[in-house]
Amino acid sequence: MNTTAALCENLTHSQIKEEEIQTKKNKYQEFGITVAAGNGDGHRLNQLNWPKGIFVDNDKSIYIADSDNHRIVKWKLNSNTGEIIVGGNGKGYQNNQLNYPTNIIFNKKNNSFGISDRGNRRVIRYFDQNQTNQKIIISNIDCYGLAIDKNGSIYVSDWQNHQVRRQKQGDTKGELVAGGNGKGNHLNQLNSPTFIFIDHNYSLYISDTDNHRVMKWKKDAKEGIIVSGGNGNGDSLKQLSCPCGVIVDHSGHIYVADYGNNRVMRWCEEDKEGEIVVDGNGYENQPNQLHGPVGLSFDNEENLYVADKWNHRIQKYEKI
């Protein structure tokens, strides 16, 4: 084969590889669909007040940490109202009360919910939707984000102590898995971590909010690597501003709720800059706008859901 032909063949292979990479990236509709609330802030069943963490189950029901209503709400598919499953009895410490919850996870193995009850400095497990059937599994912690791995171990971000801890089943103390070296921006430090995500390899993704970056800590690592942002607070494609929700899709793409920039970004681990998946377009309440995106989730068809905090609603962006 002559040199020209070899170059052409290499170019063709390179183009094919690039096209394969591009096809793995999901595209989403520009205009979101309001699938929960969107009726202003309030405590009625068709309203939310500062929604934060969310997850979507296989029936496309959305579970929402309705933070300033001190409750967890389940919003069924195509419903005009939500159903209170925990809390909703005012701010408090009793079994039927919550205090500014920030996140909720679901454990398929034992059909239980984990709730970050931040105002009460505790993580609670509910074994069903009976509010009396609860157990405090972590206490005295400035809990924010929650994640659960395939073994049922729970991970919780400690906002005040700039660390993430793991609680294995049956363990009462828990163990440090990320940060814990004081507030800072070194690779072994965090600064006000919020939302977290754990993948099937036990790699932990952390929204290192006040460092304006997302960190990835591999299993048993002593320090993390920067996978999103890390170039100061800003709105360029290399930057984030107070990132919140973080999730990773099946192709390893990292989605970040870029709270201060009113947008959702996507990064590949080796990329120097991200790309805008959902643009805030001016932080108002139109279908193509976001105002303070916080929690993120996928459904089983890889549609993207965003907790749009200041608009007091949940937006769904359908996969194209």
From TrEMBL:
The keyword Repeat applies. SUPFAM superfamilies: NHL repeat. It holds the Pfam family NHL. GO terms for molecular function: zinc ion binding. NHL repeats lie at residues 42-78. Keywords: Repeat. This is Uncharacterized protein.
